[in-house]
């Protein structure tokens, strides 16, 4: 009999890889933070002596969900400026509040709130794009959360950097040290959008990203207005301009990609570009519906993101994958366009692939980190159970997430955050609300 740290015994296990498989009565073995075995429970109990045995007899164990695009610290701006079109929302709501309030302290507290919310919803990895990325990384490490931390790059002064040169320089510092080999943290460059930089600075960014071998994450083709403004200013659609500058490649995580021509989709597929689809944000800001069934059929990997809490307003991938599946069906005029199993893939392994982390997370496979989420299917709205994937995608709410592990650490235990003081977190959030509201209303 072999020793292991944790033996998790759910009723069902959906490993996501191989695709469409649902295992009944299996156990996942975790040692030193990694999945070391997945086998029938009876055999597991004979073969392994666990330090901790977790029995979840009415639950489905899935890979931890991957939030492929967010702005974590914006939780503190949640609900501050709703019901506005994107440009008005940015210019009159978000940017003035950010100019006044973004600081290391704000990013620390907002990111902590976001991580607590995401862990409670079964998310074990997030891709971030915000100021003070070193604080985002530090907070993720302190809370033992997996993150791809995007360092912002724009050519305007903010409280984090003065100009494009300083953004790039501070960004490359973060990539080098101290996170180059960190098991939980990876990094990327995150220019806000095509209007963030001149051609010259985009070229410098590409060279630096290539040298450091890190991805580039940016909002791209989010709205029809963005494309029209680019055509007016440069005579080129944003994708075309990015392609000419050498940024359309397998390192690009294109966020939103709502409005794409067939030729652009084909080019993305050929280049290996990944798309972070953020359906609720696109609906709330009336940006449009990304036809993801078309993207997937063309061979583009589609991941799912929540975007920031100011434009969503919840960091909940389980509800986001449901929305993604439903919108994909209606936009394709085909109820079979994206299945429940496809949606679960996009929220897990598809996300890990998009972040370049498919070897580390995204499926329940021996050798990967034990990033896992358990969903309670005993509740009324999940009964009766014919099809596990269907129940997970079309009925389960994030409140049904009972347990979460990140790299084997039991972060959510029977519905309770095990290592975060939520009372203290709520107090701090309310303090920020009072400070911010006093200057905006
Ligand atoms: Zn965004």
Per-chain topology:
Elements: E1 2-13, E2 23-24, E3 26-31, E4 34-40, H1 41-47, E5 48-63, E6 65-70, H2 86-101, H3 104-120, E7 123-129, H4 133-142, E8 146-153, H5 164-176, E9 185-191, H6 199-212, E10 216-220, H7 224-234, H8 238-244, E11 252-256, H9 262-271, E12 274-277, H10 279-284, H11 292-298, E13 301-304, H12 317-332, H13 340-346, H14 349-354, E14 372-376, H15 388-395, E15 401-406, E16 409-413, E17 416-417, H16 422-440
Parallel strand pairs: 1-5, 6-7, 7-8, 8-9, 10-11, 11-12, 12-13
Antiparallel strand pairs: 1-2, 1-3, 3-4, 5-14, 14-15, 15-16, 16-17
Helix pairs in contact: 3-4, 3-16, 5-6, 12-13, 13-15
The structure holds zinc ion.
Brief account:
This protein is an alpha/beta fold and 441 residues long. The chain contains 16 helices and 17 strands.
Structural class: alpha/beta
Q: What kind of oligomer do you see?
A: single chain
The helix content is: 25-40%
Bound molecules: zinc ion
Number of strands: 17
- The whole-number mean of residue pLDDT values reads 96
CATH superfamily of the largest domain: Metal-dependent hydrolases
What's the Cα radius of gyration? Answer: 21 Å
Unreliable stretches, pLDDT < 50, 5 or more residues?
Answer: none
Number of helices: 16
CATH top level of the largest domain is Alpha Beta
General form: globular
CATH fold category name of the largest domain: TIM Barrel
CATH architecture of the largest domain: Alpha-Beta Barrel
Q: Give the distance, in angstroms, between the N- and C-terminal Cα atoms.
A: 65 Å
Q: Could you tell me the strand content as a percent range?
A: 15-25%
